[in-house]
Design a protein that fits this description.
Number of helices: 1
Largest sheet: 2 strands, antiparallel
Helix content: 10-25%
Structural class: alpha+beta
Length: about 60
């Protein structure tokens, strides 16, 4: 069985984890309403996705 010969130092461990951070969420402006929404997600206010009505809009 393979066993490490030396202990991984905290510096090396943290350098490996430097790419694990999460980035900020991206938003795009909706062409019709002008509101911000996530790309490739259904607009929950209008129920539209890629120009099609996929959900019934919520009534206020």
């Amino acid at each position: 069985m393979a066993v490490p010969k030396r202990k991984v130092s905290p510096s090396r461990r943290n350098m490996r984890r430097s790419h694990h951070a999460l980035g900020a969420n991206s938003y795009v402006e909706d062409k019709d309403t002008g509101e911000l929404r996530r790309p490739h997600h259904v607009d929950l206010k209008t129920g539209m996705y890629k120009g099609r009505q996929v959900l019934t809009p919520k009534e206020d």
